[in-house]
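ok so for the tutorial part 2 we go from a plain amino acid sequence to predicted structure tokens. step 1 is just haveing the sequence, like this:
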Amino acid sequence: MTLRNLCAAFAISALAGTAATAQSDFQPSTTVRQYAPRLVELMSSAQLQHLKLWFAGKSKNWELAAYELRQLTDSLTQAAILYPGIPVSNVTTMEEPLLSIADAIETRDGRKFAASMRGLTDGCNACHTSLGRSFIAMAIPTDQEPPANQIFSPSRKAQNN
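step 2 — the prediction. this is what the tokens look like for a chain of 161 residues:
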């Protein structure tokens, strides 16, 4: 599945509002509760994925950027499905920035990537504001050191491709 298709699937999944439940003959214990991550956990993951996506794209590690975009899209989709109180319009407005980032990654266009990331960040902040959470403000990461436990530059092998 291409990044563009994945981002489009994000919007469709969010609009659906419910997740399909797999049927099986296996019945869990009646004392076991199904785990659903709290919204803060999903959004914390999305924040880290946003950060990593930025540094991967800035470093022109397009393979890592594509991976982080998929992870971010999955986190946002999961939030939209598990938390139907998030207005559909907030979710669908994220489609365009995600598609634009996917296009920038596929064409390896650093300028479009940066502009698209600004659009995504603005969309995050607009959603937070509409939910009365404007105190949660996202920003494009600065040139300060990225998380020190990951290498964002592409490997020499990837650079030669």
